[in-house]
Amino acid sequence: MGSIDTNPTAFAAFGDDTSFQPLNADDVRSYLHKSVDFIYDYYKSVESLPVLPSVEPGYLRRQLQSVPPTSSAPFDIAMKEVREAVVPGMTHWASPNFFAFFPSTNSAAAIAGDLIASAMNTVGFTWQANPAATEMEVLALDWLAQLLRLPAGFMNRTAAGRGTGGGVILGTTSEAMLVTLVSARDAALRRIGSDGVAGITKLAVYAADQTHSTFFKACRLAGFDPANIKSIPTGADTDYGLDPEKLLEIMKADVAAGLVPTYICATVGTTSSNAVDPIGAIADVAATFNAWVHVDAAYAGSACICPEFRHHLDGVERVDSISMSPHKWLMTCLDCTCLWVRDAHRLTDSLETNPEYLKNDATDSGAVTDLKDMQVGVGRRFRGLKLWMVMRTYGAAKLQEHIRSDVAMAKMFEDAVRADDRFEVVVPRNFALVCFRIKPQGAMTEQDADEANHELMERLNRTGKAYLAHTAIGGKFVLRFAVGSSLQEERHVRSAWELIKKTTSEIIKGEM
């Protein structure tokens, strides 16, 4: 084979030693070896690092030069600055002392899969653009659908061949909500015979007040009238889950007012309290109005690979779409949100693009689904590889063991809270989240208790030894203790509880 460069002297001015070779194989090996050593050291030491950094806004710009470098520098310089400037400003989600929000889990298999995918740097918008990327994503989604025992109608491939449903891996739950909202919107507009989007002001969407705020943002992005985005109040009587009777009442009133019920978002494991909406009963209500039902199982969906938690998805065979995020609790690094739809054509009808430069025989044959037509954008990463690597490496048994271990540690923490009469568990624990607080005692009012709990959270987080977040439930300031960091062990939960007890004693005694 001849050289691509047919004029060897054309670039002689650059010299062999100074030519820019960003993918020089020796450099790739050297840089990655150093990066792997850094990652190894990080995971070995992260437990000893303050979970929440004590830096001020703008700190990084003051430590690193504020103008881009003109000349090259050894890779070791960049790594030195990462260690000295970046790491001290990190909130360490990987820390076993991280109990805030929901976990952002990871694993050796996921890191390896993401590394390989990043190195290949493929852009698999159509099947032809990278057959393996599309095929791997389809396979990984079908595997996970089987672990969740989703109906065959949600799968890309079934024993009988290609199904009507399908899935796609997106970046976030927000994207899953947005694309399904757009599909439901378009279907409703066709149903009422609207010319274009002229009838969009008649469309109404519904969710419980515990639903993640991203739902209401996605509704606005999809063009729904804010007045028709219905947030349905919940309460302790339903453990803060959506009440189907209240939903039916509101939807009937909307129809009487000339609105068209279009979409309901049901949640399995809400962010605030881990509440579970009754999927089957909600699907029954939706069927009356031909409304789309989407299930947001971003966090708790992972638990449903365990038979003892699968009942939380009962009724899923009657919904239109479901999403869950393995990057939260299934050992797969960001970003990885899996969306399945019962009828893939309803999604692609709204999102399909077919420019001349992307036309090809595989697409024209109808034998493949181009994943670009199930998402907002066109370009996409090779996300399926890391998810497949996790399932292929660990298998269902190990993944179930991981979930069960976290739930057991959360139950241990919940039992400790209930045994201390200074505290209360505000809502029944679901999965691996405990919502608790210092309860009013003696002359302490509810307002005093809120202030004490706020002070408890602030003091805990300032120690760097634990990181908790809060929410509001029933008008009360509540602390959230989310178990599930990949490195967490029982000793970390016990240590956090001891710190909570000690700090609470100091607050109640009025010590500063």
UniProtKB/TrEMBL annotation:
Descriptive protein name: Aromatic-L-amino-acid decarboxylase
Keywords, alphabetical: Decarboxylase, Lyase, Pyridoxal phosphate
N6-(pyridoxal phosphate)lysine, modified sites: 328
Family annotation (SUPFAM superfamilies): PLP-dependent transferases (SSF53383)
Cofactor: pyridoxal 5'-phosphate
Keyword Ion transport on entry: no
Gene Ontology biological process terms, A to Z: phenol-containing compound biosynthetic process; primary amino compound biosynthetic process
Similarity annotation: Belongs to the group II decarboxylase family.
PROSITE patterns in the record: DDC_GAD_HDC_YDC (PS00392)
Domain of life: Eukaryota
Gene3D superfamilies, A to Z: Aspartate Aminotransferase, domain 1 (3.90.1150.10), dopa decarboxylase, N-terminal domain (1.20.1340.10), Type I PLP-dependent aspartate aminotransferase-like (Major domain) (3.40.640.10)
Gene Ontology terms, MF aspect: carboxy-lyase activity
Keyword match Lyase: yes
